[in-house]
Design a protein that fits this description.
single chain, 224 residues, alpha+beta
Length: 224
C-alpha cells in the first residue's frame, strides 16, 4: 500500500523494478503513517531529524529562517529580499516559505544519507494531512540486506551528497520539490546527463530552480 506513494521519489520508483523484496521489507519494518490536524507542527527548526516524510494527503507549509551576521546591504538570493541598514549588520532574520504538496514533494531526505541532519526550518500542516514516515535507521538496515538495492542506493547517495555539499548553504532546505529535482535525482542513479552536460551543470540548474521557486512562493505569500 505504501509503494504508490513512495514512487514519487526516483530512488523508490527504481527499487520497485530493481528489488521488490526491498520495498516489501521497507513497508513492513521502516515505514509508518502520521496524521496531522490543521496547524499541527511536524518539527521545529533546529531539531534533529529521525525520518524522511512523504505527504500523501493534504498540504504543509515550511518556514525556513535565513540568518546573516555581518556585512551591509546583503542580498538574500534564496528569498529575493534585500537587507538595508545604515551601520554594521548585527543580525538579520528573514523567513523563506515553501509548500509541501501531496503526491509530489517529500521532506528531510538528507537524514537517509547522513549520520545526522538538523532541521533548517519549521513545518506546519496547512490542513488535515497524512504522511508516510521513513525511519532512517531501519531504512539503512533494510537496504544493506539486498546487493542490488545496496548498489543502487550507494551510487545515488554518493551523488546526492556531492550535490548537497556543493549547494549554497542559503539554498539548503528540508523540502524536496519533486517537480523541480526529480529528473536530476534520476541521474544520480546512473549518471545519464544531457548531451554535453556535466554533473556540476545539472546541480546548478536544479539549485537555480529551487531559488526561483522560493522567491515566487514568498512573493505570493506577501501579497496574501
Amino acid at each position: 500500500l505504501c509503494v504508490p506513494h513512495l514512487s514519487i521519489h526516483p530512488l523508490f520508483s527504481r527499487l520497485e523494478s530493481a528489488s521488490k523484496v526491498t520495498l516489501f521489507r521497507l513497508s513492513n519494518t521502516a515505514i509508518s503513517r502520521k496524521m496531522l490536524a490543521a496547524g499541527d507542527s511536524l518539527f521545529l527548526s533546529g531539531e534533529m531529524a529521525t525520518h524522511m516524510y512523504v505527504c500523501i494527503e493534504g498540504r504543509l507549509r515550511y518556514i525556513k529562517t535565513q540568518k546573516q551576521s555581518e556585512g551591509e546591504g546583503k542580498r538574500m538570493e534564496a528569498i529575493g529580499s534585500y537587507v538595508k541598514n545604515s551601520g554594521p549588520l548585527q543580525r538579520v532574520v528573514l523567513p523563506a516559505t515553501e509548500w509541501v504538496d501531496s503526491h509530489e514533494d517529500w521532506i528531510a531526505e538528507p537524514i537517509l544519507w547522513t549520520p545526522a541532519w538538523r532541521h533548517l526550518g519549521q513545518t506546519i500542516s496547512h490542513m488535515k494531512s497524512e504522511l508516510l514516515l521513513v525511519d532512517a535507521e531501519k531504512f539503512s538496515e533494510v537496504i544493506l540486506l539486498n546487493p542490488q538495492a545496496m548498489q543502487l542506493a550507494h551510487t545515488y547517495a554518493k551523488n546526492f551528497l556531492v550535490w548537497l555539499n556543493t549547494m549554497d548553504p542559503l539554498l539548503r532546505s528540508d523540502i524536496s520539490q519533486g517537480e523541480i529535482i526529480s529528473k536530476m535525482l534520476e541521474r544520480f542513479m546512473d549518471m545519464e546527463l544531457d548531451d554535453g552536460e556535466t554533473m556540476e551543470e545539472a546541480m546548478s540548474k536544479a539549485t537555480t530552480n529551487r531559488s526561483l521557486t522560493m522567491v515566487m512562493d514568498n512573493n505570493q505569500q506577501q501579497q496574501i
